[in-house]
Each structure stands twice: as structure tokens, then as C-alpha cells.
Amino acid sequence: MSDTTPAPCAPEDVRRIACIGAGVIGGGWVAHFLARGYDVTAWDPAADAEEKLRRLVAAAWPALEQIGLADGASQDRLTVAPTLAEAVADAQFVQESAPEKLELKRSLLAELDAATPPGVVIASSTSGYPMTDMQTDAATPSRLVVGHPFNPPYLIPLVEVVGGERTGADAVAWSSRFYDVAGKSVITMDRELPGFIANRLQEALWREALHMVANGEASVEDIDASITEGPGLRWAFMGPCLTFALAGGEGGMAHMLDHFGPSLKSPWTRLEAPELDRKLRDAMVDGCEEAAGDRTYADLVAERDQGVIDVLRATGRLGGTAR
Amino acid sequence: MSDTTPAPCAPEDVRRIACIGAGVIGGGWVAHFLARGYDVTAWDPAADAEEKLRRLVAAAWPALEQIGLADGASQDRLTVAPTLAEAVADAQFVQESAPEKLELKRSLLAELDAATPPGVVIASSTSGYPMTDMQTDAATPSRLVVGHPFNPPYLIPLVEVVGGERTGADAVAWSSRFYDVAGKSVITMDRELPGFIANRLQEALWREALHMVANGEASVEDIDASITEGPGLRWAFMGPCLTFALAGGEGGMAHMLDHFGPSLKSPWTRLEAPELDRKLRDAMVDGCEEAAGDRTYADLVAERDQGVIDVLRATGRLGGTAR
Lengths: 323, 323
Description:
Largest sheet of chain A: 8 strands, mixed
Order of helices and strands of chain A: EHEHEHEHEHEEHEHHHHHHH
Largest interface: A-B, 122 and 122 residues
Oligomer: homodimer
Structural class of chain A: alpha/beta
CATH superfamily of the largest domain in chain A: NAD(P)-binding Rossmann-like Domain
């Protein structure tokens, strides 16, 4: 790999990545980028950070070998820098994964901005802070974006990309393209939303779960089993909207909303439902029809059924697997 | 199979099942029970019910053959009865899957109770009505239970079993055992909760999704992708509690709650979070430790990673599969 590419470079030409913060998420990013063949320089202020990081990467490596490493990928491409400034001095992309504390994120992003070569995009792994609230202290807020991964970042494809009020549209577009090149599955959001999309959804589920445990209504074991033996099997390959559209039978989402719509008024969760007016109904129906594309109801049912069978078999619940 | 077994019988001795209502859920139950080798008699008041039902069963059959049929299982074991009374006359178990209308459920369960041989358990597939509210008109409410499946019932293992205030504990225990024998994964609840467990969880997620679409914050496509490319991959085999425990690193759920607990106050969803007091914290920590059992953090991480890889491969996202 070339050491002479000037930053900024095209997303396809990135070779050197700085990972700031090397905990579960930061370390997961390190493992992912190494597996994709990048040179990674990491920095973390903790005294035992390097040892923990190398252990995390080594533990993840057999999984990454199974998936398939990029040409030249090696754990030897990891350097742990003694200072933040040295970590980013030569970087063509920076991924920040510090603890979720707003003041810390603000000052750290300002410090990273000051130390990183001009034009290089700096992405934050924040689980939910809007970039607008985090970029306040930086001299060049235009290059600061959110690139929110899921745990473990070296296996779960999703990255949510969104800018703040002072982020440049080019930085958002560059980041989305970069993550795509780097093997992630990208959702680019056109507006800030606390918790982004996936975290809002799983947080709603999580809060309902906490309420149930707090009130003695369900055990941790029952909650987990209710998902892994139930809707979780479908959600591995078909999202909640399309899944519910199939619950409407051949009538699809339209029938589902018209049939089950009244249950939105039921006390099935502590989260109040929105008014299911014509506009929302049509948006859901249109979205599902668009998602279905040319696939008929029968096609979708067959696809869902095959998916559930494959997932059941893959996770050792039909026998005949190695697990 | 014997035609002389008197009802009621032991869960292991059931041979003849009546399925009342033959839509998406009722028809899915028919397919499941046929695949497990039972004789099934179905009844549905719709004029074209038999044709639709036989089409649904035929469409599901290749999937059921893949999973493996029970000895003697055959679509020929399905009889469609002309009346409700004839459908249940000889039944050793009754599964009711009528539309979700409380008045309809009440009168139908009363009618089923009057026509079904004494002692035979009658289970309702209701998505969320408490049995207490549905058993009001029945002469023998003690044998009425909820047995709530997930779509499609012939593939998704989960059944939630719960009784109403007037349901006998023996009917609940009998049902749980019966579903287990019939190849389902059973959660037996010791109290009524509108929406039970899994529906409360997925309904919270669903309501947040509807809010996002209603407010133009996310598209149907983004919502579905945020789950299938993100947390949905984990939830196919590891529930939300244990998954979040791993997000706490080696510190587990305790570290996770102490670290991310403050984000419960963030506006990440429209669902208000419960107070994360010591009691709730400890209940979550203890529950996760119990779920983990002898498995270390490293064991769980390895298990999760292998699970994600297997699910990605099984759903055609790593290449090298037939799909």
C-alpha cells in the first residue's frame, strides 16, 4: 500500500485509518478495518488499552477468517500510537469511539479536528448524540459526521451515517461511500434524530423489556426467548414492516393495518401509538409495496419461509449442523 | 391412529385436533399440526375457506418437508367440516384462530365450549386479548387458555401460554405440555399481560417505527434495513438482554447498565424508560448471569460471532449459499 497518497483522498483510495478509543466498539472497528486490509493506528488513553485491544482483535480473527479476509489483511497492520496526535497524523479517515459522554465527545472531536490533516473526515461512533451537539467546539465542524455501528462492528453490517447542522454534505456523501467500500451496509439519514433509526427501534423494545422486568411481568429468560424463538427469527432477513405486511395475507400491509389497526389502541406496550390516519396508512402501504417490488405475496411467503428454515438450521435448531 | 381414545387424554396421546378459523394464522396452525402427524379438522365460515386453506397448506408443505415431517404426516389428514359442531365433536384439542374482535372471540369461545367434548382444552390464538376478557360467556371457562403463536405458526417455534382468571391451572399446564410435544417452543406466563411478552416487545418497536414514518424521519425501507442489517441478525439466536450484556464487555450487564444507563433518559424513543433503580439493575444483572450460566464472556462473544456468521451465510449475505 502506498504511503504517499495525500489526504484527503477518494473513499476508494483510503489505506490508513485512525481508530480513537479501543473499547468494545473501537476495538471492533479496528478488527473490521484490519480484516478489510487497511493499516490501522489506534489510540486509547487507558493504561492496558493495547493489550486488551490486541486480545480483542485476536479473538475476532478466526471469525473474520471465516468470512474471508481482504488481500494483505493482517493483525500486523495494527499500530498503537502513544498519543492522539500521532495516531491521526497520517490518517485518511478517523473513527472515534470514545465513551458516551457529551462533554468528552465535544472536547475530543475538537482535539481530533485540530490534529488531523485538513480535509480528512472524522466519524463518531456515538450511539445517539446528534452531531450538532458534539461539533460545537471544533474549528472545522464541516468534516465531522456520525458513523454509528452495531456491536460487533466487525460482523454486523449496519452503519448509520448522518451529519450535524454544520457538517458538509460532501463529508456525509464521502463517509457513506467510504463505509460502503469498506464492506459495511449503510443507511444515510437526511436529518438528525436522537438515537438514529435502529437504536430508536431497539431502544423502544428494550425499554418495554425493562418495564416488564421492573414490574415482575416477565423474566429476563422469557424476554430473550420470546425474541429468539419468535420475531427475531424473521428479523434476521426481513424487516418488521415487510414481515407485518405478510401478516396481512394476500391483502398485505393495507389489510394488516385495516385489520390490526385497532390494536394500536390496545395497551400492548407503554409506548403510545401514533394516529393511524390515511396519510400514515398509505405511507406504510406504499413503502411495503415498493419494498416488495415485483415479488408476489406467494414469492414473499416462500422467501420468508426459506429464510426462517435457513436461520433455524444455521443456528442449530433443526439438527444436522455443526453447532 | 386410534379413533377410540376418549377425550380428555394426556398431551402425548392427542391425535385429533380441531382448528377453528382458517385464515393466515389458523391455516398456519393446520399446516403445523398436519406436518406433525395429527388428524386435523378445520372449520371456517368463509365460503371459499376450504380452497384457500388447502392452497395455504400445499404452499407450506415443501418447507415442512425440508424441516422433516412426522411419521404418517399427510395433507390427506385434513378434513374441512361443514359446521363448528362437527369440527370439534371428536377433537382432543381445539385451536381457535378467529379475527381479533373481542365480542366475536367471546361468543365463539362460548359456542366452542358448548360443542366440544368435556375436559378437552380450547386454546385461543389471540394476539393480545387477556383470556379473562374472552372467557366471560363460556359455561366452562376453566378449560379456556391462550396459546398465542407467531406467523407462520408452522415455522416460528414460539407459543405463549397463559390462562385467564377463571382458567384452571391444570389446563395451562396441559396446554404447555401439549405444545411442547407438538414441537413448539413454549413460554408459560404466570399472569395476564395485554399483548403477552413478544407482542409487547415487537409492538413497542412497531409503534416507534410508525411514529418515524408519520413524522417523515425514516422510510419503510430504512426501518427494515436498520433491523435486518443490524440488531435483527443477533436477535435470531441471542435475545436483547444477553445481547446488551455483551455490549458491556467483560463487565457484562452491570457495566452496560452503569455505562449506558444514563441514555435511558435520552429522547431515543417515544417510550418513557422506567427508573433504573437498584432493584431493576440487579434483576437485569442476575437474569443475564443466570442466562449465561457457565459460559464466560469470551464464550458468549465466540457464540454470538459464530451465530452472526452462520445467519449471514444462511441468508445469502456471505456468498457460497444456494439462496
